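Entry:
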Amino acid sequence: MGGPVFQGPEDPEALAQRHRQLGYGAAYCPEVRLTDTDRIRAVAGAFARHRVVIAEVGRWVNLLAADPEERRRNLQYVTEGLALADEVGALCCVDIAGSFSATHWFGPHPENLSQRFFEAAVENARKIIDAVKPRRARFCYEMMAWAWPHTPDAALQLLRAVDRPAFAIHLDPCNLVNSPEKFYRNTDLLQECFDKLGPWIVSCHAKDLAWEVEMSLHFREVRPGLGALDYATYLRRLAQLPHRPPLMLEHLATAEEYEAAARHLRSLGRQLGLLWDPPEPEGPGIGTSSAPAARAG
């Protein structure tokens, strides 16, 4: 399990230690430029020494932006993200496949579930992977409720179409819940994800969903344990994967909320007979701070 570190130190050694103090065995990639080879080596070495897996390099931009120059810059930014992931020892670089929306970079659009979108997503993934030729990191599209890959079968279809060993799966089951059927039957959805995608899952997100009752459908993200997602099934199936993908907490506003989410998942894991690495935090919490930069997911 991992998550953001609030008020984290710049020094890689101290930052890796802070993750362990919080009981995290995984981390989002610290801020580092691809050209800063000394810091990349320092980060990779420190996190390896303290047994903290760098789960992912997030590159949250629109690869299908309408403006050609913006689209070119975004493609280059994500390509550099995959190169950074490979150099720093991160498991993957992740972005959404994009959106044809003209108003929101991740927003809905009728063409986001089209064949045109699918073909563009395949082409971009191939371009990014072929430009980097990563030795160990993988490239992933995060699941989305209104754009490819929006179902386990869609993710599998993309995996086969991209046809690159470096293309993998980033699991965020909450992002697949876009109907009452999926909300109420999310156990079946989780089972389907692991049955079909398990060997290719390299990193996962942890959040929860509650149904906000109003006259139209509104699912709201909440802290793990405060929603309807079947976390017992999620944790059991994740623990069965031999390659041990990390579970990354996200989208919470304060350090206290992250600590509460982590406590809930550790407690549930103990009830299920599962072991976390590390099993418990090594020190006290770190207090509140302004939230990390906004991310998709």
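Residues 285-296 have pLDDT under 50 and may be disordered.
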